[in-house]
Amino acid sequence: MVNGYSGSMITILLVFGTRPEAIKLFPVVRALAATPGFRVRTCVTAQHRGLLDQVLDLADLVPDIDLDLMEPGQSLDRLTARLLAGLGEAIDVERPDLVVVHGDTATAMAGALAAYYRRVPVAHVEAGLRSGDILHPWPEEVNRRIVAAIAAHHFAPTETAAAALLAETIDPATVHVTGNTVIDALRWTEARIAADPSLAAGLDEIAARFARKRLLLVTTHRRENFGGGMEAIARAIGRIADRPDVAVLFPVHPNPAVGTVMEAVLGDRANVARVAPLDYPHFVRALGLCTLVLTDSGGVQEEAPAFGKPVLVMRETTERPEGVAAGTARLVGTDEGRIVAEVTRLLDDDTAYAAMARAHNPFGDGQAATRIAALLRHAYVRDDPVVVELIDPAARAAPPSIVVARDCAPQLVRL
Ligand code: UDP
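^ Those are the sequences you sent over. The predicted structure of the assembly is below.
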């Protein structure tokens, strides 16, 4: 008996391997583990070893299976082959009733495929994001589409993502708008920092060093930007950092394709703090402290609007158009002159800055994981007398989607 539940247990295996997957899935692990009727197992592939472990430590999450598949410089096909074989074996050992994957990584794609080969249903968290271009983001756009072709449950973070799935003729009964679990992770982490400021205290020194400057938070790691794009980004950061009123905080992704270029172009500039990747509490604190964000990251595009921080996205397309539509994000590509001009405009034009710097949460309300757990309980735990109201009606114009319970007096759960 777990969580007071005495019926037969449903085993759910969550599979993940990278930092963003861990950040966005740990709230789901917690919500499922607190749900009567579920036995929760986790398998990590460690596609990003060090960055993944930072998040596991924070969330106090000890994986049941650790495939430890990271090899420096391995090709996408070798990685994918090893993921598929390793995850297939993990599923054979765990014999889950459901496999949960997240987003667009090789781990998510291989996990979904391995489950499909065994006819185990798949739930896809952060489903339905589409750029419409299979080369941007590469190869993530295709990873996501493969998972969508397989999944039995599609948890779309936004109405836009749900609409993209419906346009691909995915069965509407399997598509649910839940919000993005990254906002759950963010809120949970903010509460942890509030209770224990020492969790993010490492940023105090940087904050003191740049106290009278405006802080630009930079991250970049996208494969499409390796090479010429990365060099242009580095030169743009160098030019921006020449301004005496600006300092740059730049947690450098461990991929050598990033660090080598940044080292060569930026050297030891006084106004640029190139640091190792920040653990999540420090990164959350940095988002709170900065004036604006320059990034090609997916997750950071979703988090910065929650802090009311303008985000300049160093990509040509985005599968997260909600920030752009809300006016808090802007696509600036990787042209050196364009990046410098857009940053300069925000730094020098208060009206332009104020127009973008509005706290806004197009990506979620911090309750996504609770909704996902309630939906899965409704789908798998047969005696579940629950009706889930997916989205707070006050938060959207259209009437809320309602999942009606089977054969029992419904109880309305407002999430
Ligand atoms: N992040 C972090 N430390 C850093 C940089 C980013 O914890 O130094 C977090 C960030 O808050 C976001 C996630 O990592 O939640 C984004 O990961 P990444 O940019 O690697 O991947 P993407 O979101 O583009 O898939």
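Residues 19-20, 23, 182, 219, 221, 251, 277-278, 280, 283, 297-300, 303 surround uridine-5'-diphosphate (CB under 6 Å). The radius of gyration is 21 Å.

Shout if you want it in another format.
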